Amino acid sequence: MIFFEKHITSLAFEFFRKNVKTLSNYQNTNNLTKKVCGINDFFASQIEAIELLEKIKNPSSIASDPDRREYGDFQTNENLASQVAKYAFSKDTDFEFLLEPTCGKGNFILAAIKQSKSLKKVVGIEIYQPYIWEIKFKILNHFLQNKSAQKPEIDILHRNAFEFSYEKLANSTKDLKTLIIGNPPWVTNSELGSIDSKNLPKKSNFKKLNGVEAITGKGNFDIGECISLKILNCFQNHNGVFAFLIKNSVIKNIIQDQKRNFYKIGKFEKLNIDSKKEFNVSVNASLFTAQLNSAPDLTCKELDFYSKQHITNFGWYKDKFVYSVKDYDKSSIIDGESIFTWRSGVKHDCSKIMEFEQINGHYTNGLGENFSIENNLIYGLLKSSDLKEQQTNSYRKLTIITQKKIGQETKYIKDKFPLTFQYLKSHRAYFEKRKSSIYKDKPNYSIFGIGDYSFAKYKIGISGLYKSTHFTLIRPDKSKPIMLDDTCYSIGFDRLVFAQIAHYLLNSDLVQRFLKSIIFSDSKRSINKDTLMRIDFSKAFENLDFKIAKKYIKALSLDDWSEFGTMIKSDTHSKLNT
Question: Is the pLDDT of residue 507 over 70?
Fold first, then answer.
């Protein structure tokens, strides 16, 4: 049956039916339910008791579910909650106090109660009233089935987790061995704000960001991270365990900020779960555990939740934040600054017009239109999905390059290339619809990500969209350089042999191990300019051998190898790449 919009078991229903007379005085009912299941204030008022009394007389089956985005509501199934509780109890067995700050339907609390014989006090906090009833009914049902089981004092509180006074609770439970467990919301403050949610924390700079960071993207914090840091700050001096199911990005932030926060927490573990299987959502999330009242740690052990297989240790090492301590230890020698400036490719935000294919001797754009224009401004174009081979000089797409540097006037096209000008002019409406402010007050048909470096004869490119750290050597097409789009990064060379040496260095075991050690593969853009600019080519060159390079570059001479080494120890090439 369903009361207060949520299920009540037949056993709990029969309990209230047998004791229906007590419902006329809710305090009497509260005294009775506390004796049976340990819950304080089962009913908050006489009105609630009367409502249950009426539903017992006239059972209802009205039910509704909240907007999952409103509450960041991805309820943990009973099996997963039980496994998480079991793992937490493997860290310590005699917990006396349990806190779940967003307890939802109560699966974690119930799992912990079933596994513990030492709990003295349980506190669950939940903002959604129907879940409050559901968890109370579940706990009541459990103790009706297990009448001899030890009953802790239980408070299920209808509160906002962001406004709750954790400091007061921490002070009152400081002498109790503590388990903090749960699954806080998997949304950000901006996502909740976009749907006008009331389930938002008060505006505060809880991460102590500086002025610039606080008003940029870094101010868009994760709700689960906000709750986690509040809890860790208040309960760090308790003896016990922290065990939260949270997004991987939150765990990364907690470990990264630990160098600044230096909370008394340690023995960190991140156990990867299958969120699609457990919650039917495509979110990278894990069980994050930490020992409270511990010597502060700066690294975290990553494992698979199901097999417990060790994957890596990530965190602060040699004053750097890295994904693999082991790999970084063996490759950190090349962590420095690249003499070559990595650039993202051409950006135009008008793909239906600016990108096209050559089919049966004519050009076909994204609108399906066939057209003919001069070849002078047409270049081959590679996208992230094209950078799979060791080297290439072929392409699927073509593009029009209207400028040789950002802001260059484009009026010349009308006089020199009338067909191209007419094509662009006939589609001017598409250019005017571009929303990015970078095109404001710029010449007609402007592009970005363009400069002298774009016209280097040879390039080494890498995808910024995919997780692979494979580099592709890009040769010109009939002496004409091939462009990359803005999802890719590249460096350029005018001499083939220099491009070949750089390509060999980048795909070497040393550089690949280094990239593996610093890249968090589940990041939104795991490969970016900042990461690539950390590759010190001079150090990589010093630690690799000419004889081995010769096996990969057949025409390589010792003079070429030495000349490349001299170049990367100077600033000459970096100036060419600016």
Answer: yes
Domain annotation covers residue 161: yes
Cα–Cα distance list, 426 to 370, 399, 445, 486, 538 (Å): 13, 17, 12, 25, 50
Could you write out the DSSP letters of every residue in 288-301? EEEEES-PPP-EEE
**Residue 193 binned pLDDT confidence (cut-offs 50, 70, 90):** very low
User: How many whole angstroms from its chain centre is CA 72?
Assistant: 15
Strand partners, 245: 287
| SS3 annotation, 49-65 | HHHHHHHHHCCCCCCCC
- Give me the residues paired with residue 244 across strands: 182, 288
Report angle CA 351, 356, 360 to the nearest 5 degrees.
165
- On whether residue 431 sits in a domain, the answer given is yes
Query: How far is Cα 35 from Cα 52, in angstroms, rounded to an integer?
Result: 19
Count the Cβ atoms, other than its own, within 10 Å of residue 533. 16
Q: What is the pLDDT of residue 572?
A: 52
Enter the pTM of the model: 0.83
Q: Which token pair is 199? A: 């389930």
Closest CA to 345 of 225, 237, 449, 216: 449
With respect to residue 528, please indicate whether it lies within any of the assigned structural domains. Answer: yes
Query: What pLDDT is attached to residue 19?
Result: 86
CA distance 116 to 152: 10
**pLDDT at residue 2 above 60?**
no
Decide if 507 contacts 499 (C-beta within 8 A): no
* Same domain flag for 301 and 380: no
Domain co-membership, 28 together with 81: no
User: Residue 112 falls within a domain, yes or no?
Assistant: yes
SS3 13: helix
Tell me the two tokens of residue 96.
Answer: 């006396």
Percent of the chain with pLDDT over 90: 75
Q: Are residues 470 and 571 in the same domain?
A: yes
Host domain of residue 523: 343-576
pLDDT at position 69: 43
Q: How many domains does the chain have?
A: 3
Mean pLDDT (whole number) for 148-165: 93
Extract the tokens encoding 300: 């975290």
Q: Are residues 425 and 308 in the same domain?
A: no
> Quick one: 14 and 99 in the same domain?
no
CA-based torsion, 388, 389, 391, 392: positive or negative: negative
Of 45-59, 154-168, 256-270, the range with the lowest mean pLDDT is: 45-59
The contacts of residue 154 (CB under 8 Å, 6+ apart) are: 37, 38, 39, 40, 121, 122, 123, 124, 139
Q: pLDDT per residue over 509-544, tens digit each? A: 999 999 999 999 887 778 999 999 999 999 999 999
Share of the chain residues as helix, strand and coil, in percent rounded to the nearest 5: 40, 20, 40
**Whose CA is closest to 411, among 426, 424, 396?**
424
Same structural domain, 23 and 79: no
Same domain, 361 and 496: yes
Q: Which residues contact 159 (CB under 8 A, 6 or more apart)?
A: 125, 126, 127
Q: Could you tell me the pLDDT band of residue 11, with boundaries at 50, 70 and 90? A: confident
Residue 278 belongs to domain with CATH number: 3.40.50.150
182 and 47 assigned to the same domain: no
pLDDT digits (tens, 9 = 90+) for 401-454: 999 999 999 999 999 999 999 999 999 999 999 999 999 999 999 999 999 999
